[in-house]
Amino acid sequence: MKAASPLDNFERVLLVGVALKRSPRAGVVSSGAAGRESLVELEELVRSAGAKVVGSRLQMRDTLDSATLVGTGMLVELKLEAVRLNAGLIILDRNLSPVQHRNIERGTDCRVIDRTQLILDIFARHAHSREGQLQVELAQLNYLLPRLAGSKRELSRLGGGIGTRGPGEQKLETDRRRIRDRAAKIERSIETVRRQRAQRRHARQAVPLGTVALVGYTNAGKSTVFNALTHAEVLTSSKMFATLDPTVRSVRLPSRRRVLLSDTVGFIRDLPAGLITAFRATLEEVQEAAVMLHVTDISNPAHAEQDAEVEKVLQDLGVADRPRLRVFNKVDRLSPEELDALRESHDGSRLGSDGSSDENHYPGVFVSAHTGLGIDELHHRIDDVMPVDPIVARRLNVPLANGRELAMIYACGRVIESKVQDGHICLDAELPESLAARLERFDDPLGARHPAIHH
Description:
Largest sheet: 6 strands, mixed
Helix content: 40-55%
Number of domains: 3
Shape: elongated
Low-confidence stretches: 1-8, 152-159, 348-360, 448-455
Structural class: alpha/beta
CATH architecture of the largest domain: 3-Layer(aba) Sandwich
Number of helices: 16
CATH superfamily of the largest domain: P-loop containing nucleotide triphosphate hydrolases
């Protein structure tokens, strides 16, 4: 992957959003508010890519222009605006067809990229593992392949800049056959990674450790929640897509069960389908999870729309019906009155009888991962919903000479009462079911043998 140029931080960008006056679904007249919110998000993405936004334009249209998206009149205006602002790059808050991309560049005499290419650029910045770099390059090649025709002029420009990181200019000037060969080679490498992940998961399944996956919109605070639960030091950043390579850590729950917590890439609206496909090896951590923690930045006024976008991706991955906890993060940014109102609106929420996945239908925990507020409660709630290796109550009669087994009971279970008698220790304990099965020979036939009721 090509290293970022020091000049990237000074790249001046003009943003362009296009919104329809009427919703294509319901025919409702639009005020442009959604378009403005999307432009604000695009500006955050640009900052994460290391550039400076010097201006933005939002165009309201009846229909999208098939040749230029914005129309020839707007192209003239954008060309003049870019000259006035000394902006060398125009970023469209839409996904452009190859024809639209070429026509906008010719009409504005500026370098142009779309939303997808911007996201790919940020992914290229934040992919540090070999696996992540392979996945980003595959997505970039699949994006660029249909755009090779007529791209010689743009690709011949050497130097840094948003949208130029990744496979590199020389590779992009090769023919389609070489790019397809490279993509096929990357796919084989990623398939090897998938098999290795599957082998590791199979090894983990020999010891019943459930996996909990953090999911949520980008910049919702997933990595901060991850660090608060695991006491790890995963990179946290206000920049979007700061976490790209998955991280897995072990967590001890209040019941003394151990689970594996996985921090994954954040989602975003209009996430390109090619990215979801390319990152399937990473997203398998979500697909294999026994429980998902859906992290929401509850302080963001657009959090409901962001959660809806996350829901779409979970539907695409086929995991929308997986056991889930809602983690309403960043409550430290709310006033006491706002927090009380939110607690009341989400109190007692559970999955609806119709199986729907509205945010009010899942149990929620209010936390501030930054201050630690609510993290202990979150540990307990994970314990409650974790279906893997449930806790059972046992009465055991273990010889004092069996120090290894006694150490396992005290390390992995909770001893309620114990009494030493005749060289044995009689224990009333709550244990993970897998451990209870291993200690079955020590069961006291006169003791209790029923599911534990904990918390």
